[in-house]
Specification:
This protein is α/β, with parallel strands linked by helices. It contains twelve helices and 16 strands. The protein folds into two domains: about 280 residues, FAD/NAD(P)-binding domain (3-Layer(bba) Sandwich), CATH 3.50.50.60; about 150 residues, Elongation Factor Tu (Ef-tu), domain 3. The chain is globular and about 65 Å long.
């Protein structure tokens, strides 16, 4: 029997789409509201739900990594986002990268075809008043100004924000494959990445010009604050001449098969789609002006005549102070009928955002059905993210990707090389027991 209450989700990104899927598959009706295509944020351009606007990579698929463990936990919880990412994967070494257009298309189709999902295309400018039904806010870090103001009024405090940058996408046919070579780090033979090799002279010239390049200025009232896990390439360069060589341009494990030597530095390009017509510049998110991007990036060997499918840009990411405002169930402390999901809650990353949508969806469906909400064990990646959101020091709270530093301390010393595998084993065992106890 279908629950009589309809759960409302505002926002059709990764978190909102995942939440809708979890709710509908628990026999509850869901009304998913998204402002596209009537209104677009500064970085969105497509009608489809779950549009990827930054990288097309969901990062490592290694189950012994924290992000790999989170994906595996979500697979076991019937995640729509991870399922469709697996189905639309493009070769990317040990990472899970997707054909972004096909991915969004498949997610949208699955939700449109579900009999308990209603998709409404309109913009919501205010948080709904308190009611007996449940609402999930999943509008993301680029929440529209009116809704963000309404959220600020609800929380009783100013919004928090950092600045995020997007990497350029280039056309494959404009690349010089006489210079560029295929290889994944440490792998033998042809790999899934294109590599643009630099000798010392070309590297020093590149960082010199990068250091002099003009960036898009922030407004006079805007504080410069970046997420450390996604720094603009020019900000990394400003921290020293070798920071790029030990960061996104690290050449280790990328010997050039044409010369048999390891370059002084390497710019890597990752497939954007299955047709291999476009590539993403790995780690090259930037706030350079468009004209400077064209000038500076054409200095990269093999990209002298590069043409861009999309240039890089910078945008403002908004999030709340979750430790002060959220319960571990993702319900607001002052509004139990209202749940928060996605990047707006204070997680960072595609999968992390979808994971919060998964939990918000599960809990809103349970609440609507008269059951108690659930909290995943801290030994799981899902539980580690909830701990970050609700147990961090409020004054120091910052968005975070999943990492093993968010997990409980080891009870005894564990060899470093075994930590990832043992974390994964312990996490998946805890997840299995939790799902069994909670009758998923």
């Amino acid at each position: 029997m279908t629950n009589k209450h309809t759960i409302t989700i505002i926002g059709g990104g990764l978190a909102g789409s995942e939440a809708a899927w979890q709710i509908a598959n628990r026999n509850c009706r869901v009304r998913l509201i998204d402002m596209k295509p009537h209104t677009f944020s500064p970085v969105h351009s497509q009608r489809e739900l779950a549009e990827l606007v930054c990288s097309n990579s969901f990062r490592s698929n290694d189950p012994s990594s924290a992000i790999g463990l989170l994906k595996e936990e979500m697979r076991r919880c019937n995640s729509l986002i991870v399922q469709k990412a697996d189905e639309t994967a493009v070769p990317a070494g040990k990472a899970l990268a997707v054909d972004r257009d096909l991915f969004a298309k498949k997610v949208t189709e699955n939700l449109e075809q579900h009999p308990l999902v209603e998709i409404v295309r309109e913009e919501i400018s205010e948080i709904p008043p308190e009611s007996s039904s449940y609402t999930i806010i999943a509008t993301g870090p680029l929440t529209s100004e009116p809704l963000a103001e309404s959220l600020a009024t609800l929380t009783g405090r100013d919004r928090l924000a950092f600045y995020d940058a997007i990497a350029p996408i280039v056309y494959t046919e404009s690349l010089n494959m006489d210079i560029i070579y295929c290889k994944s780090r440490y792998d033998d033979g042809p790999g899934d990445y294109l590599n643009c090799p630099m000798d010392k002279e070309s590297y020093l010239h590149f960082i010199e010009e990068l250091g002099k390049a003009t960036c898009v200025p922030l407004k006079s009232f805007e504080e410069i604050k970046y997420f450390e896990g996604c720094l603009p390439v020019e900000v990394i360069r400003s921290r020293g001449d070798d920071t790029l060589r030990f960061g996104p341009m690290k050449p280790v494990g990328l010997e050039d098969p044409k010369t048999g030597k390891t370059p002084y530095a390497v710019v890597q390009l990752r497939k954007e789609n299955r047709q291999e017509t476009t590539y993403n510049m790995v780690g090259f998110q930037t706030k350079l002006t468009y004209s400077e991007q064209k000038r500076i990036f054409s200095l990269i060997p093999g990209m002298e005549k590069v043409e861009f499918a999309r240039l890089g840009s910078i945008h403002r990411n908004t999030f709340i102070c979750a430790p002060e405002l959220l319960q571990p169930t993702l319900q607001f402390k002052t509004r139990p009928d209202l749940l928060l999901a996605g990047q707006l809650s204070g997680v960072e990353g595609y999968i992390e955002s979808a994971a919060m949508g998964l939990l918000a969806g599960i809990n809103s469906a349970r609440l609507a059905s008269g059951n108690s909400p659930v909290i995943p064990p801290p030994e799981t990646a899902l539980g580690a993210l909830i701990r970050h959101l609700t147990e961090s020091e409020p004054k120091k709270f910052q968005p975070s990707n999943i990492n093993f530093g968010l997990f409980p301390l080891w009870e005894k010393k564990v060899p470093k090389k075994l930590k990832g595998r043992l974390r994964a084993e312990k996490g998946l065992e805890a997840l299995q027991n939790w799902m069994k106890d909670e009758e998923f």
